[in-house]
Amino acid sequence: MPLPPEEPQIHESAQGPRATSASGRTAPTPRPVPGPRPAAHPRPGRPGPLRPSPPVQRTPHDVAAKPGPSGPAAHTAAAPAPASPQIQLIPASAEGALDAAEEAVDLLLDSGRAPGEVLVITTGEQHPWATHELTFGEASYWAQHDAGDDVFYADASAVGRATTRPVVVVAVNSGPDSSAATVLPLALGRAGALLIVCGDPQQINSVLGAGV
């Protein structure tokens, strides 16, 4: 008696359709992804997800400070311009200019000026102090100038070597006409705060102009 044909057995691994790749290999059945997918990594050139920045603690100084200009121009603008010395004119004749200068020095010292802050210049005859000190030699004379401890007296020939002092007093006591024209501009350059000129107002104004 012929045996009935065997019934095909269904294996568990063959349940359901399977996807076949182009290469002929059997691809596994895709599984469902539970929950939302994580954010993809940002690609170059595209902004990624924004993250909150940590809070920045500011001090009152940081809040009040404002950025100012920088660079050489800023420093130049902030630097104060040097002030020109004040000029005072004491009318005096050529014969009385030296006495007027002595009175001006006394008033300066009485007002609190230190002796080393005053330089006295004569356009003509030298002051008696300078004449006396020069008898000991120029080295001793200029050493007292460099020490800066007392009022220093110089004539027109020595004013170019004298250094700046807060107050310069000029006695226009005769001398050649060109002497005042040479000494007064130099004396103005040596005066740090105040220039006092004792002499003929017309002659002084012609040299210093509107500055007097």
Q: What features would you describe in this structure?
A:
With 212 residues, the chain is an alpha/beta fold. It has 7 helices and 7 strands; from the N terminus they run ββααβαβααββαβα. The strands form 2 sheets. A 5-stranded parallel sheet has the order 3-7-6-4-5, sandwiched between helices. A two-stranded antiparallel sheet has the order 1-2. Strand 6, helix 6 and strand 7 form a beta-alpha-beta unit. It is globular and about 35 Å long. 21% of the residues are buried.
What structural keywords apply?
212 residues, five-stranded parallel β-sheet, alpha/beta, two-stranded antiparallel sheet
Give me the oligomer status: single chain
Strand portion, in percent? Answer: 15-25%
Helix-strand pattern: EEHHEHEHHEEHEH
Structural class: alpha/beta
Number of strands: 7
Runs in which pLDDT lies below 50 for 5 or more consecutive residues are 10-17, 19-23, 29-56, 58-68, 72-77
What global shape is seen? Answer: globular
Cα(first) to Cα(last) distance is 152 Å
On the 0 to 100 scale, the average pLDDT is 75
Radius of gyration over C-alpha positions, nearest whole angstrom: 49 Å
Helices, by number, come to 7
Helix content: 25-40%
